[in-house]
Every structure is written in C-alpha cells, then in structure tokens.
Amino acid sequence: MMADSGSEEIAVIGNTDLTSAELENNIKNTMVEIEKWTSVLRKMEISVGEAEKRTGKNTVNMQEIYTVYLIETRPVDAVTEGIIPAPDSLWRRYSEFELLRNYLLVTYPFVVVAPLPEKRAEIVWHKLSADNMDPDFVERRRVGLENFLLRLASHPVLCNDKIFYIFLTEEKGWKEMVYETGFQAKADSRLKAMNAAFRVKNPDKRFTELKHYSDELQTVVSQLLRVRACRNSQNIKIEAAESKKLCKIFLQRVADRLYGVYKVHGNYGRVFSEWSAIEKEMGDGLQSAGHHMDAYAASVDDILEEEEHYADQLKEYLFYTEALRAVCRKHELTQFELEMAAQDLASKKQQKEELVTGTVRTFSLKGMTSKLFGQETAEQREVKLQVLEQQIEEGEEAVKEKNAESDEFVKTAWIDIEHFKDQKDRDLKEALISYAIMQISRCKKGIQVWTNAKECFNKM
C-alpha cells in the first residue's frame, strides 16, 4: 500500500483546488498586471481597411484566384498629439491569419484564443451566392478579421507576442519566422489529447465544469440563433451538434422570412400603383399608399445586413466554445503527464523496496525468474539498487516539474477564463440590447407605413 498511497499523493498535488479567497486574490493581482500591460502595449491603431482579389499560383503551380486583406497600423501616440501620419500597411491572405492563430494556440495553451470568421460562405439566399469571392461575404469576413486582430491586440498576454507584432508590421519573411519557432513540433495530436481525456484518474473539477460551461454556452447561443429561425415553418431538420450548419440554417430561414415579408409589401406597392392608373377619384390615394409600400419593401437589404451583423456576433461566441474546449484538453494532457510521471515514480519505489527486502509483493516475470533460476547475487542487487536510486531521483525531479507546470497552467488558465467570461457577458449583453432596439425600430417603421397608408385610404 505504500507505493499506491504515494502515487495518489503525488498525482493530486497539481490538482489541488484554490480557495475562493486565494482565487479572488490571484485574479485581483493579475488584473492589476493586465492594466499595466495594456497601458504599455496598446501602442498602435489596427484596422483591416479593404479586401482585394488577386491571381497567382498555388503550391501545386496552378492558377488560382484568392483574396488578400489590407492591414493598416498607426502609432497611437502620434494620433493623441494631433499628428495623423499615413498608416503602415501590408497585405495578408486568410491562410496567414489561420497560421497566426494556430501558432498562438500552441504557444499559449492556457489562453482562450479568439476564433476567426468563417473561411467559406455558409449562407445562400435570394441575393447572395456560395462563392467565396461574393463581395458581401468578403466584406463580412473583412470585418471579422479586423475584430480578430483587435481581440488579440487587447489581450494582456497575446498583445505582447513578438510573432503577432511581426504579423502586423513585416510583410515579407513572416511565415519563415513562424516556422522557425518550431511550434508545429509542440502541437499535441488529437489522438494524444483523446487518450489523456479517457485515462486521467484525477480530473480537476473546475475544468470539468468548464467543459459543461462551454457546452451550455454553445446550446444557449444556438438557441438564440434558432429562435430567430423558428417562426418560419420550413421543413428543415436541425442537429444540435452541428453548430455551423445551425448558423447556416438560421441565416437562410431568417433571410427567406424577411425577404418574404418585404416582397409582400412590394407586391402591395405594385398593385396599388397599377390600380391607381384605372381609378380617377382614388388614384392619388392609391398611388401614395403604393409609394409607402415600395419604400418599406426597398429597405429589406439594410434590415438583412443588420440581421447578418447580429448573427456574426453570436457566431463568434459559438466558435469561442471550441477555444474553451482546447484549454480543457491541454489541461487534461498536462494532468495525464503528471499522473504518468507519478505512477512511474511509485513503480520505481516499489521495485527498490522489493529489492531491499527481497519480497516480491505483486506477480511479475522477475519474481517467477528468481524462483526458477535462483536469487541475484549481492553485487547484482547493489548495482540495480544504485540504478533505481538514480531513476527515483530523476523521477522525483520530473514529478516536481510536472507539478509546477500543472500549477502554473491552472493559475494562468483560470485567470484568462475569468477574463473571457467577463468579455462574453459584456459583448452578448450589448449585442442583444442592440438587436432588441433594431427590432423595435423595425416594428415602428412597419406601423408607420401602414398608418400612412391608412391616411391615404381615408382621404379617398
């Protein structure tokens, strides 16, 4: 029992829960540091000014059409002093944004890294196409990429990354610098992460709860998207786990429903206008009513653009849930490595005990061999004992390092998670309030249209 109890004690050192007071104190101290960092490191204005189509050759030497995005940066100090210099600018492809994010995910596993906007168009309705080069889709993606960079620039840790700074300021040689960091070799395989998730014996309950929090966030955001779509009674099956498809279905159904409403008003306008041509006394009133209907129908594009903006805000946090799970997976892997190191150390200690006492406590091939061919000599045991002592010393050092790594990961990750939750609460509250105001405004506009039409009819 000695070895087993030792293993249990070691394996949970890095998994010890902080008290609420300790956690609150850590957060307060770190928030002070955050304010210090952000005041020093926010030294430039960042924007993605425009998008441009280009033609070139891909990796297999074939012609392709792709989109590049213009990143502009300007020193904040110059702006505050009343000097507005021309911004520094460079062009980046979407794949370069992907490379930057992959690098950050590997380099800062404890950070909830902001997601990128969709790479491919996920909606197809009356006006839009599924083409990645569709101007409306490219514009929405440009806005999403700018938001991604602003998220990184405002993060207290990521904004200080050298590679991120080079991404913003140096057009040539950036990719080579990223690959020279060796981040790809540090990336954990999904198979390794899955293995750790299944085999961890002492999972940290806080990260288990975080996974539940991520699932709940995904469900809530999906429901918000679904609510906007449920009024339309089309026969479309929605799978809860297919979040991206849900977004696509939401946008499709909302667009169709809105388009249908405004198309009806457009038909009213056409009917009233045609009717006015054959009526003498009621002609002016019918024509005026038709104009009101036409104006309302023509506003559908602006309304749909606002709907898409709202959906993009929700979709960002739908994709954020995967970033939360990535942090949980990394913690599981860290905890698994700690437990494996502790288990190996306990095994070495048990071997030493058996060698010293000459008693084999568990069935092993070594024990059977000793019974069949006799015990080892004193010299052989002494050599093996020295080897085991060296291995135990190395194992204790390894467990100590893994404990420190686990403790540091938990501390830094939990601070960043609290930071993310605060950000999420602010953003979603603002988005939902803005959406409610937009709906109220739209309803008032519809009421005004029919009020005006009623006045036209009353004057006939």
Task: Please characterize this protein's 3D structure.
With 460 residues, the chain is mostly helical. It is 70% helix and 7% strand. It is built from 15 helices and three strands. It has helices spanning 2-11, 20-41, 76-80, 94-107, 135-154, 162-169, 174-180, 183-186, 190-199, 205-229, 243-276, 283-298, 300-357, 365-373, 378-458; strands at residues 44-57, 63-75, 88-93. The protein has a three-stranded antiparallel beta sheet. α1 (2-11) runs antiparallel to α13 (300-357) and α9 (190-199) crosses α13 (300-357). The chain is elongated, with a radius of gyration of 31 Å. The model is unreliable at 1-16, 31-41, 123-130 and 229-242 (pLDDT under 50).
Count of helix runs = 15
- Detail the poorly predicted runs: 1-16, 31-41, 123-130, 229-242
Could you say which overall geometry the principal axes of the C-alpha atoms support? Answer: elongated
**Integer-rounded radius of gyration:** 31 Å
User: Largest sheet at a glance?
Assistant: 3 strands, antiparallel
Global mean pLDDT: 77
Order of helices and strands: HHEEHEHHHHHHHHHHHH
Which strand order does the major sheet show? Answer: 1-2-3
Oligomer description: single chain
Beta-sheet strand percentage?
A: 5-15%
Helix fraction by DSSP (H/I, runs of at least 4)? over 70%
Q: Tell me the distance between the termini.
A: 98 Å
The count of β-strands is: 3
Structural class based on helices, strands and sheet pairing: mainly alpha
